[in-house]
Protein 1
Amino acid sequence: MPHPLPALIVIDVQRAFDEWEAAGKRRNNPDAVARIVDLLAAFRANGAPIFHIRHEGTKPNSSFLPSRSGYAVKDEAREQDGEPVIVKRVNSAFIGTDLETRLRASGITTLVICGATTNHCVETTTRMAGNLGFDTRLVRDATWTFDRIGPDGDAHSAEEIHAMTLSNLNGEFARIVTAGEVIASFAAK
């Protein structure tokens, strides 16, 4: 039987990203973690399922190695008792994990995705969720990314990358929503 509530998938809200910022990398959406905190509070208040995803680096210089400070989750987004933590080693939270099995076993059909970064693990997980047939919502103001240099040396701002990622996913893989819309949907039930 389908689960009546959506599941919140919180991707890679880890300290490595704070370290990148401190080292001079520029990001967009500075309020994203605050919106994730709002989503966590709403899902908890409504008894809706929450799954925390952590990235475990595999390369020797990765900021996400378990032995490094960047692996730790940001305090604001820490899991509570009973909220599963799923560790992944690639961009998709579905590859090499039991996330899909857990979701299907619980009858969960709707996913609300937030976290970091928009164009990496969030995008890859969102694409796969859509391909796997989940009713997927990506929370535009609860995810962020960083400036990047393209293969031709062109500079791309975090805002530009974020907007393009949302455009690529919209309609085909997910519905793009705001944290406020997700929270309001609980009141409508």
Protein 2
Amino acid sequence: MSAVQTIEVSQAEADMRLDRWFKKHFPHIPHGRVEKFLRTGQVRVDGARAKGNQRLEAGQIVRVPPMPEPGAVKAEAPLTREDAAYARSLVIYKDADLIALNKPHGLAVQGGSKTTRHVDRLLEAFGKGDERPRLVHRLDKDTSGVLVVARTADSARRLARLFQTRDVKKVYWAVALGVPAPHVGEISGFLKKSGGAEGDRERMVAARHGEEGAQHAVTHYSVADHAGRRVSWVVLSPETGRTHQLRVHLAEFGHAILGDGKYVCDIPTPEGLSRKLHLHARRVEIPRPGKPPVVIEAELPVHMSETFAALGFDFDAAGPAEEALG
């Protein structure tokens, strides 16, 4: 076991995510253990607690806790041929800068102590070392749809900035309980992590302006279609990108997303419909200097397609609903 280390971030590592920086310096340490180091405050940046998605600046000092030697950690087995084929089957777009996947419901973006099959692991199917694609944003495990990964370090920096600065237009489709009124509008307010039990660290709750940890969140919505007053198809465009933002906003609005067991409302779930989360990242539009934007769409997962068919939702309603978002 090594001693505590303090490592200065180099100029070449500027704007790199902390978890990627850690993987570069300590490739033998599993991602789940890195997440535990971060969660418990053992990894710090300039003396402060940090998250894996924090972007580093040149000259910052990263505190690294005692690390096991490379031989003391069991190396990950190579990606199986089946997993590599599965990863490639998810591709819906690629160019010199990025690869876009249609992430299935139930597939985590990154691993943990009990999660061994996840997108970050599957990216090995597209290259190793510097050729391995890099995550630039995330989706919840149970949210399906467009997930973009960068093919180079330069494109990772550019794409990450675009996602952070809200220059990427994102459109989600959700099936909500009840029918939001008015049919077109904006949901805004402050959100923060609940600070609840150990097993519920990622739960978000409404907060007041100025409250510690509170972050402003804005979601634009439009009802595309509905089945009586029981269920509706809602098109969503988040202006901000807070954890679980769309799920919290609809639940706080009184119209929780069908299949969401964490953020609920008083409207009962109709019988005969899938209990999987009905939230899908339908489309992203990525701007490019001097060129038209890259527009990427992902087909609905099976459980949402079946629900749309059962409720008779009209796909032609998507266009007017998205236009109403502005």
Protein 3
Amino acid sequence: MTTLDFSPLFRSMIGFDRLANALETAYRSEPGGYPPYNVELQDENRYRITLAVAGFSEDELNLEVKENLLTVSGQRHATERDGNFLYRGIANRGFERKFQLADYVKVVEAKLEKGLLHIDLVREVPEAMKPRRIEIRGTGTSPAIEHGASEQAKVA
């Protein structure tokens, strides 16, 4: 197996520590796993994570967000008796899934229905961070910043 050395990124990317760590984590994580999940882009600023958690009740699932890391875990309570199974294909184990969230992405709702855990997320970019259009004016035109009526009266 080939390993990638991310140390040049750490040396040349000042202030991008989280990005470099996310790349390194993504490279090392194994695909697949339990439980299976989908990540859906619903529109430009809304996302949905759906995990197949059949057999888990709401009180056996835990969601936690800490420092842009969403952790979903489940621990089954021992309700089934250990019987004489000829075949046991239904998983009866706990799990933990972690999702790295981008800046300004918030969890807005989580609901469990028909064995699927739906986690709705929304990206709420502050007004100060949104792009804004700056009008370009030629010479001899009024100033780009217009004053309110009360300030214009003071100037006149």
